């Protein structure tokens, strides 16, 4: 079936270092969404990318959608302890007329102060 | 404005029992989706309802069912509970008619433990 894969599974950085997580889909996606889940919390929507090659920035976070609309990345510049959490990408996948939002397994980011 | 609310927060059941989880979407959102999240994994799609109609169904057994009410709130029912049903059940509301069409706004979840 259609899959959304993320790497790495875990990433530990020193505060101030950069961080990148990558997302790959087995099929072309109409859009890609990114969510952040703090430990013990629930996923919180960060951004949605729709266009091929799209790049969006939110302060220290940069999101990219690949030209083929099958991959995406999230880059955090100069991480802070507040960035700790699991970052998920998600894309709509379909089987006939049945659409569902498929999440990757996430990348757990820990930051050493 | 209130976000997505879910009840109960925590629930402990025994194998074979039945459970009902409830969700109220953000005001103005007509779409509600249900997800199951086990530790270390991403949320797994169970159902999506829009305007009281089922719009999407994930790979879950028929023991799982849901419905949406005229006020757009929703219930998720799970029958004949198994140990493997222990998980965080998340509800998300959205303005889009199809799952994945727009941002999902998640509630705090219901932590279900099956003993």
Summarize the model shown.
The complex is a heterodimer of chains A (113) and B (115). Chain A is an all-beta fold. Helix content of chain A is 0%, strand content 58%.
Key attributes of the depicted protein:
A: 113 residues, mainly beta, six-stranded mixed sheet, B: mainly beta, seven-stranded mixed sheet, four-stranded antiparallel sheet, 11 strands, globular
Biggest beta-sheet profile of chain A: 6 strands, mixed
Query: From N to C, what is the helix and strand string of chain A?
Result: EEEEEEEEEEE
The number of E-state strands of chain B comes to: 11
Q: Compute the CA-based radius of gyration of chain A.
A: 14 Å
Tell me the greatest interface.
Answer: A-B, 24 and 26 residues
Oligomer: heterodimer
Low-confidence stretches of chain A: none
Question: Could you explain how this protein is built, in words?
Answer:
Chain A has no helices and eleven strands. Chain A is mainly β. The radius of gyration of chain A is 14 Å and the shape is globular. The mean pLDDT of chain A is 93. Helices cover 0% and strands 50% of the residues of chain B. Chain B contains no helices and eleven strands. In chain B, the strands form two sheets. In chain B, strands 2, 4, 5, 6, 9, 10 and 11 form a seven-stranded mixed β-sheet that branches. At the A-B interface, strand 5, strand 9 and strand 10 of A face strand 5, strand 6 and strand 10 of B.
């Amino acid at each position: 079936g259609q899959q959304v894969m993320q790497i790495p599974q875990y990433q530990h950085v020193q505060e101030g270092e950069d961080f990148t997580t990558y997302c790959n889909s087995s099929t072309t996606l109409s859009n890609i969404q990114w969510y952040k889940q703090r430990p013990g919390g629930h996923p919180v929507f960060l951004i949605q990318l729709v266009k091929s090659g799209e790049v969006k920035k939110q302060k220290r976070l940069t999101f990219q959608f690949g030209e083929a609309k099958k991959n995406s990345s999230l880059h955090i510049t100069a991480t802070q302890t507040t960035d700790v959490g699991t970052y998920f990408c998600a894309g709509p996948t379909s089987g006939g007329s049945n659409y569902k939002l498929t999440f990757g397994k996430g990348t757990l980011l820990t930051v050493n102060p | 404005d209130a976000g997505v609310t879910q009840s109960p927060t925590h629930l402990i059941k025994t194998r074979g029992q039945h459970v009902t989880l409830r969700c109220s979407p953000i005001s103005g959102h007509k779409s509600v989706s249900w997800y199951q999240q086990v530790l270390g994994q991403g949320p797994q799609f169970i159902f999506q309802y829009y305007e009281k109609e089922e719009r999407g169904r994930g790979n879950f057994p028929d023991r799982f069912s849901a419905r949406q009410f005229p006020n757009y709130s929703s219930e998720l029912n799970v029958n004949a509970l198994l140990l493997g049903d222990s998980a965080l059940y998340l509800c998300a509301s959205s303005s889009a008619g199809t799952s994945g069409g727009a941002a999902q706004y998640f509630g705090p979840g219901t932590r279900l433990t099956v003993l």
